[in-house]
Amino acid sequence: MTTARIDARFKALKAEGRAAFIPYVMGGDPSREEALAILKGLPAAGADIIELGFPFSDPMAEGPPIQKAAIRGLAAGFGLRSTMDLAREFRKGDDATPIVLMGYLNPIESLGYDAFAAYAADCGIDGLIVVDCPPEEAGPLVQALDKVSISLIRLATPTSDDDRLGVLAEGASGFVYYVAVAGVTGVKEADADVVAPAVKRVRAASGLPVAVGFGIKTPERAAAIARVADAVVVGSALVEEVAAAVAANEPAAPRVLAQVKALGDAVRSVASASVAETV
C-alpha cells in the first residue's frame, strides 16, 4: 500500500523532470543529539526523501563505513525503537518529507510485526526496506504494514532476472530500490551506462519509480546516475563524514549536511530521462 508522502514527492519531481536525492543516515550516529540535528537539517540541505537506518549488530549488506556507523549507533544506545523515535521528533517540524526506514528483520520480528507497524506509523514512517526479507517470506510483514499504509520497498539487484523481477513486483509499492553493484555498500562504484537499461527493466516490471543505490559517493557519480534513474541514494559517503567528524572531535552535522548539499545540487543539476518515462 503506497503512502501519500512518497507518491506526492515522486509526482512533484516528475513534474520538475528530475530525480530524487535520497541520503542515508544512521540512527544515533554518533549520538542522539547529533543524529537528530543531521536528520532535521537534511531537507534544507537537499534531501527529497530520507533513508533512516537503524543500528543492528550484523548488517550483512553493508561495507565497513556503514558497519562502523551501526557500531557507533549501538554504542549510543540506539536500536529500532529509538531510531523511530528520532523520526517522531523530525515529524514535529516536517510533515512533508518521506522517511524510509532501512534495516534488518531480526529487531522487527522481536518487536512483533503488528506492534512494529503501529509504532512506525505513529512516528511518521512512510516506507520500510528490510535487506534480509525476501518476498517469499514477507507476507505477514506486508499485511501488518498495509494496515497502516506503510510501503515495503523491494530490492532488485544486477542478478534479478525477469522472472525474479515479476516476483519482486508483486505487491510492491512506493518505489523499487535497485542495488547497482554486486556486493556490499561503499566498495564498488556504480556505472550509469550499466545502470540505465537495468532501471528500465525494473520499472517495466514494477510500474514504479526506481531508486539506485550502492556505489555512489561523489557529486559527479550522483549526477550521472540521476540522468538515468528516478532517485539516487547515497549512504557510505555521508556516514564517512560522521566518522571523520568524530575522529577530529568536531560536530558531525555541518560536515554531513555540506556533503548532502553538494550531492543534492548535483542531482538537481541534471534532467532525468527516467523520470520522464515513469508511468
Key phrases:
globular, alpha/beta, 9-stranded parallel beta sheet
Could you describe the 3D structure shown?
The protein is α/β, with parallel strands linked by helices. The protein has helices spanning 4-16, 32-45, 64-75, 80-91, 105-111, 113-122, 139-147, 162-169, 192-206, 219-226, 236-247, 252-268, 273-277, and strands at residues 20-26, 50-53, 99-103, 127-130, 151-152, 154-156, 176-179, 210-213, 231-234. Strands 5-4-3-2-1-9-8-7-6 form a nine-stranded parallel beta sheet. Strand 6 (154-156), helix 8 and strand 7 (176-179) form a beta-alpha-beta unit.
Please outline what is shown here:
The protein has 279 residues and is of the alpha/beta class. 51% of the residues lie in helices and 13% in strands.
The averaged pLDDT comes out at 93
Total number of strands: 9
What is the strand arrangement across the widest sheet? Answer: 5-4-3-2-1-9-8-7-6
* SSE string, helices as H and strands as E: HEHEHHEHHEHEEHEHEHEHHH
- By secondary-structure content and strand pairing, the structural class works out as alpha/beta
Please report the distance between the alpha carbons of the first and last residues: 17 Å
> What general form does the structure show?
globular
The percent range for helix content is 40-55%
Largest sheet: 9 strands, parallel
Gyration radius over CA: 17 Å
Proportion in β-strands: 5-15%
Separate helix tally: 13
List low-confidence stretches: 183-187
